[in-house]
Design brief:
The chain is α/β, with parallel strands linked by helices. The protein has 8 helices and 34 strands. The protein is elongated, with a radius of gyration of 22 Å.
């Protein structure tokens, strides 16, 4: 096959357990975001916009929805005769199958895929972050600095720094120390989970890591520290744009609320850096006489007869007469029936909020109604509860 300067490997197999019932039947990168997208649309669109035309997507946990959504890759212009997007699940080798045991192991199990393209460099991406980034600019920086590995970093609030891998750097951005979730961080430059490696170096360290049965097979815990110990040239690449790890219910809700600020912290209207995704092909949205819609994103196919404020409605949502939706995220094809109240909540796809029911409350923790769940007429889901739809299934998170 034709040689590529750089290919991308996108880690999309994580369970996303901190998102609770939202990821019980789908992988985190497949979670809807922003009214018309899914989380994985952002790294895939970044690849397209950056000229990265080979993307291997490693799936594992509940992959059906994600695999179906990616399909041939056509929404991101990644359905090429040479290159494009490839879904890479774990597979049986010889007599035994083997799950991906960590982020590094997921790449190691796909060495044969990478070798097809003989890349000079490999871009490693997470599939669960919301951001717009020019990977080609990062690649050029990586090559210019003659780095063995380059790690994208951004400054986070000091109080949040202990939750991240922290890069301690020289004035020239050479990484001389890496602290994984330090109790007392020396700086606030956090790893974004976006890496570029020289392929020959990465292959060496992946191969060595695979020889150690006690390894976590993880980039942050093993590969990067091992490269640091061997004095490899490691560079930090500063990123100053919007970046959100949507790994918790609150951060997913907050990332949606961010879109209701004007100007948006992440500009979805930028025609020079479009975010692509599968179009549901719905009819235009409809707002009935007497309905009220204030400071919202309302996607195609929605029908609004009630009151909606400071919320994001995905395609095909129906808000019936007398219903109130405030400070909430309502995912595709959900229905909020007459007189129901939804406040500070995430309502998952195909859910039904029964007439007169109450979900969440103003100022409370985020309530969640799960996929295809039905909240009974007059029912109540407390703030912070997650409701699957079966009797006694509401639980505190």
């Amino acid at each position: 096959m034709k040689k590529k300067r750089c290919i991308a490997m996108l880690l999309a197999g994580g369970q996303g357990s901190r998102l609770g019932i939202l990821t019980e039947d789908m992988a985190k990168p497949a979670i809807p975001y922003g009214g018309k997208y899914r989380i994985i649309d952002f790294p895939l669109s970044n690849c397209t916009n950056s000229g990265i035309d080979v993307v291997g997507v490693m799936t594992q946990y509940q992959p059906l929805e994600l695999n179906s959504y990616i399909g041939s890759g056509s929404p991101w212009d990644l359905d090429l005769s040479y290159g494009g997007v490839y879904v890479l699940p774990p597979y049986v080798k010889g007599k035994h199958g083997e799950w991906y045991s960590g982020t590094a192991n997921a790449i190691y199990q796909n060495v044969a895929f990478i070798r097809q393209f003989s890349p000079d460099h490999v871009l490693i991406l997470a599939g669960d972050h919301i951001y717009k980034m020019d990977y080609n600019a990062m690649l050029n920086y990586h090559i210019e600095k003659e780095a063995d590995a380059t790690i994208a970093v951004r400054e986070v609030p000091w109080e949040d720094a202990p939750r991240f891998g922290i890069m301690n750097t020289t004035a020239e951005n050479v990484i001389f120390e890496f602290d994984e979730k330090p109790a007392k961080p020396k700086n606030n430059k956090a790893s974004m989970g976006v890496y570029i490696f020289r392929w020959d170096k990465l292959l060496h360290y992946l191969t060595e890591d695979a020889k150690h049965p006690d390894s976590s097979n993880d980039f942050g815990k093993n590969i990067i520290p091992n490269m640091m110990a061997d004095k490899q040239r490691m560079m930090a690449y500063d990123f100053e744009g919007y970046w959100k790890d949507v790994g918790t219910v609150y951060s997913l809700w907050e990332a949606h609320m961010d879109l209701l600020q004007m100007p948006m912290p992440i500009d979805l209207y930028d025609k020079n850096w479009r975010i692509y995704g599968r179009n549901p092909g719905e009819t235009p949205h409809y707002v009935a006489p007497g309905a009220t819609v204030k400071n919202c994103l309302v996607t195609e196919g929605c029908e609004v007869y009630g009151s909606v404020s400071h919320s994001v409605l995905f395609s095909g949502v129906t808000v019936m007469e007398g219903a109130v939706v405030e400070d909430s995220v309502v995912m595709p094809n959900a229905v909020v029936q007459c007189g129901a109240m939804v406040r500070r909540a995430i309502v998952a796809e195909d859910a039904v909020i029964g007439a007169g029911a109450t979900v969440g409350e103003t100022g409370g923790e985020i309530a969640v109604v799960g996929h295809a769940a039905t909240v009974a007429k007059g029912g109540k889901i407390e703030p912070g509860q997650q409701f699957r739809g079966d009797a006694g299934s509401a639980e505190r998170k």
